[in-house]
Every structure is written in C-alpha cells, then in structure tokens.
Amino acid sequence: xxxxxxxxxxxxxxxxxxxxxxxxxxxxxxxxxxxxxxxxxxxxxxxxxxxxxxxxxxxxxxxxxxxxxxxxxxxxxxxxxxxxxxxxxxxxxxxxxxxxxxxxxxxxxxxxxxxxxxxxxxxxxxxxxxxxxxxxxxxxxxxxxxxxxxxxxxxxxxxxxxxxxxxxxxxxxxxxxxxxxxxxxxxxxxxxxxxxxxxxxxxxxxxxxxxxxxxxx
Length: 217
Known about the structure:
Elements: E1 6-16, E2 21-31, H1 37-49, E3 55-57, E4 70-73, E5 79-85, H2 90-99, E6 103-106, H3 111-118, E7 120-123, E8 126-129, E9 134-137, E10 140-141, H4 146-156, E11 163-164, H5 165-173, H6 182-195, E12 201-204, E13 208-211
Parallel strand pairs: 5-6
Antiparallel strand pairs: 1-2, 3-4, 4-5, 7-8, 8-9, 9-10, 11-13, 12-13
Helix pairs in contact: 4-5, 4-6
C-alpha cells in the first residue's frame, strides 16, 4: 500500500439478476494519493458488476504497466478478463488484447474520449489518427493518398511486428487481389519518401514489412 493512501471499508449488497449473482461484498480499498474519487468509484463499480470467482484488484498498484487494474483469473491462474479503468491508451488496450481473451473498459469520463484514443497510434514522433485520417511527424503534417494512409495505419496497428505481403494486400487492397504485387512496393517507396526517412519502414526480405521508430533503441 502506498504511503499516504486513504483506506475505505465498503459493504455492498450485490443482486445481479441477469447473472444470478447474489453476494455481500466486504471490500477494503486503498485510495492512492494520485487516485481521484471518480476513478476509485469506477473501479469499485467494475469489481461489483463483474464479480465472480477469481476477480481481484492489481497487486502492482495504479502505476503498474504490466498488470490490469482489475482482472479475472481461472482456478489455474490463467488470465480470463483484463479490466481497464478510465481512458487507457490505444497501446495499452492493444497490449491487453494480446494478454487476455477478453478486455473490458469502465470509464468515468466521456466515452468519446475512448473512441478518439482507440483510433490514434503514436510511434515515436509519428502520429497516425484513423478517425481524422491525420498523419504527422512532430508538428509537420504529412499528406497521404487513401491507400498510403490505409497501408501506414495497418503497419501502425502493431509497431515492430512483421506484416506479410499477402496480409497487407488482402487488408489494404482486396482479399482476392490478383494485380501485380509491385503495387505494394510502389506504395511502400512513396511512404518512405513522405515520412522523410526510409528507416521508418523496414523490409523483411521474403516476408514483408514492419513499422519502426528510427530514433528508438
């Protein structure tokens, strides 16, 4: 428990008719000094509404980047549900989706903030916003054609991961693409030029391409 945390003792009578859950929850919660009351209430509601065997708050605290604030595990300790509170970043949600078969978000903010965040990817200085079709490096806006944008947005979904040529052609062009694969190379070359540094997009010979931060370690 963090120094300066405020302790709360809550008793909640839970009657969830839809799930057939009827419990008396006896909760002892520690409010971190940096945690707002709306956030505390949101995670309390999340715990109550999702209550089942195996649910638990994170032991790593609010600052943990490797754990969910709230999670549900099966009897073997396998993660079943990753629960986020507030407005988690798109990268954090992506990480959660890789770690758990189910991801749930409870927010005390305007849900439109989540929609906006989910459509945005930041890789180093590069910003890719699906919602507004905006691409920028730092303060410099980059103008892309629709296909160039779709290609970059796909690579930005998982920075560092290799996207096979066949997958790119299926998702950016057409599942039944029968045109020349050279089309992809032309668009990659154009993207590299517009991004100002060819190192943004690496070629994995014989496989495909991946998006990386040239300034990253």
